[in-house]
Amino acid sequence: MEYDLIIIGAGPAGYVAAIRAGQLGMKTALLEKKEVGGMCLNWGCIPTKALIESAKFYNRIKTAENLGIDGIDQSKVVFNWTNAKKRSTKIVTKLTGGVNFLLKKNGVEVIKGEARITSPNSVSIQNRLLEAKNIFIGTGSYPAPLDIELPAGKLIQVEHLLDMEELPQRIVLVGHGPVTLELAQFFQLIDKNITVISPVENILPGIDDYLRQYILKKTRSQGIRIIENSKIGSAGDDMLQVNGIDNPYDVVINCSWRNGIAPPSDIDLSRDDHGFIPVDEFLETRIPGVFAIGDVNGLSYLAHAASAQGIFAVNHVQGVLGSMDMKRCPINIYTHPEVAQIGLTEREIREKEIEYRIGEFPMSANGKALAEDSAEGMIRILSGKKLGEVLGVQIIAANATDLIAEAAAFMSVEATVYDVARTMHAHPTVSEVFLEAGMDAADKPIHK
């Protein structure tokens, strides 16, 4: 069977690329050995964020009196893990159903099974040989295995978090990166005893130092124990030894940094030591006509970056010229409060020897944030001192992961802080912090 495009992997990179290809009239086959939606929709981004929102709401009920709500018997307020999972699963089912509808609507043929690349222009699956001018690999990534044996039943992969019928009290998370801290706070918000063991000193790589210090201080203040640059020395049934000290535990959840997952292949994809497939600026591998999109190329671990890469690669093979700047990809951390950034970090700006200034504004001076009882955090806009170009934006706020989209829009049109400062924002809105931070960088803010 001949196609214009064969895509292996139906995660945020693969299914988005397939829909885009279908929209452009390309005969497209999307191959997936598990479930359409990949890690993000089925056990990653969506279900975990649904759980986090349930935990935040549970925690917010504890402070209902602050909003003038009386009569809640706190002794009867409990977090129902089973019902929270049901809500999460319902959301996943709705979204994956929507993706399958869109694939069908755009004429994409979805084939279930494990694919094998047999040549630069052919793939075998379910005893079928498929051929195409271009092949996209969008098989994603998976947490690296731990380098220690644990007693039976004591190790849980993040993929199987929702399979747990009940949650134990003492939970140890091993790994680093945003997911580790997000899950740590989730469990803390539902009253679990949490320890994080990071194998590296920098638990949040790629995050601005200011944000990292803030979130780590906040997380520790919530009672979460964080042990950096360490690993488990030995493990018993209820005790782990870390740095020679015994740590009681019930279960360990593997949140390790992920390795790339490539499909079986008869051609050399030149994978690196972590399983990632090297690509050029157009996401093409060393094999002409074979592209790697999303996590599997190691350029980003973010779902929205994977989707953007999928669209970019489809456009490229269709002759639409363009480029991708991964520094304009927002990084979101769904902690409490949320953290988000885009563009250069302060350290990167200094390394480039760019003269810069920082425009800041606290959420505690924003009327809408105060009204919502969510006034923790601030916004920082890093800009060039000479021309005022926006170099990077960092936000700490209850809804930082939504607010960062405005920064992405400003940076996509190469806006300056003067543009930000004269952009009219509705009042009262949390987004007014952009106006104030822009004015802080350009001249002086009104409300600071």
The CATH topology of the largest domain turns out to be FAD/NAD(P)-binding domain
Proportion of β residues? 15-25%
Query: How many distinct beta strands?
Result: 22
Specify the CATH homologous superfamily of the largest domain.
FAD/NAD(P)-binding domain
Alpha carbon gap, first and last residue: 65 Å
Number of helices, counting only DSSP H or I runs of 4 residues or more: 12
Walk me through the structure:
The mean pLDDT is 94. This protein has helices at residues 14-23, 38-42, 45-61, 81-105, 178-189, 209-221, 303-317, 346-351, 367-371, 400-412, 417-421, 432-442, and strands at residues 2-8, 28-32, 109-112, 116-119, 122-125, 128-137, 141-143, 155-157, 170-175, 193-197, 225-227, 232-235, 239-242, 245-248, 251-255, 258-260, 290-292, 331-333, 338-343, 356-362, 378-384, 390-397. 31% of the residues lie in helices and 24% in strands. It has 12 helices and 22 strands. Strands 1, 2, 3, 4, 5, 6 and 17 form a 7-stranded mixed β-sheet that branches. A 5-stranded parallel β-sheet has the order 8-15-9-10-11. Strand 13 (239-242) and strand 14 (245-248) form a beta hairpin. Helix 3 runs antiparallel to helix 4 (81-105). It is an alpha/beta fold and 448 residues long. It has 3 domains: 2-142 and 259-327, 3-Layer(bba) Sandwich (FAD/NAD(P)-binding domain), CATH 3.50.50.60; 146-256, FAD/NAD(P)-binding domain (3-Layer(bba) Sandwich); 337-442, Enolase-like, domain 1 (2-Layer Sandwich), CATH 3.30.390.30.
